[in-house]
Amino acid sequence: MMFQRRPSSDPLWKDEFSVQAADERYVNRRQFSKFLVLTSFGLLVGNLWILIRSLRHRAPVYPAVPIARLGEIPIGGVKQFRYPDAGDTCLMIRTAPDHYVAYSQKCTHLSCAVIYSQVNNRLECPCHDGYFSVNDGRVLQGPPPRPLPKVMLEQRGDELVAVGIDLNAEG
Amino acid sequence: MEHHQPPIQKRGLTAIDGAMSLIVILLMVQMWLLTTALEALLAGHRETALPAALISAAIFGACLVLFLFVDKIDKEVRRR
Asked: In angstroms, rounded to a whole number, what is the distance separating the alpha carbons of residues B1 and A18?
């Protein structure tokens, strides 16, 4: 076997500890190479974990939650709500008399809370100046790598109901 | 302090340095692959996970082969 030591070979300490000063460079390089290969193995494990997560993915089921009554917020106004869980804060914005949009409030960069800027008509992350379009959640500027998750709204009677989340709102 | 080494030792050291440089380059590609696959997963694109894992496995295999090369050169040169 390649990875087993032969009985006739030198003892392990001679391989791992250089007796002669000239050998030190070799030992250091071999040990550093071993560390790099172990790092590569760790990165492979990370990729395999992502593969397993993607294979075991199940489409999430979102509850239907009433958010607000029609006309409850003024045009250009904002209402904060939590959806789908108590820890997930979202923003609903009334952009026109009969048009509402809602997005997760967590910036896709480092999860800072985004705020709505009525003056600029965009969602802004104050941490690193990441800006998102209020129309579709796409990134306008800054470091966020993905659009804001969009909360799907439905009108039921005179109520606006959140019915799901679209992670890829831009598409 | 400058070390005076026989030519065979210098050649061995050069070969090992070259192999290590290749390992480092492959590692950088593998890191980029991991971050890209993670970003795609978080964005809901799951179709990138399989090719990313396969390429990562190939890169790990290449790193392992390069390490075995370093190990072989190390043993050969130090036994002289």
From this structure: 18
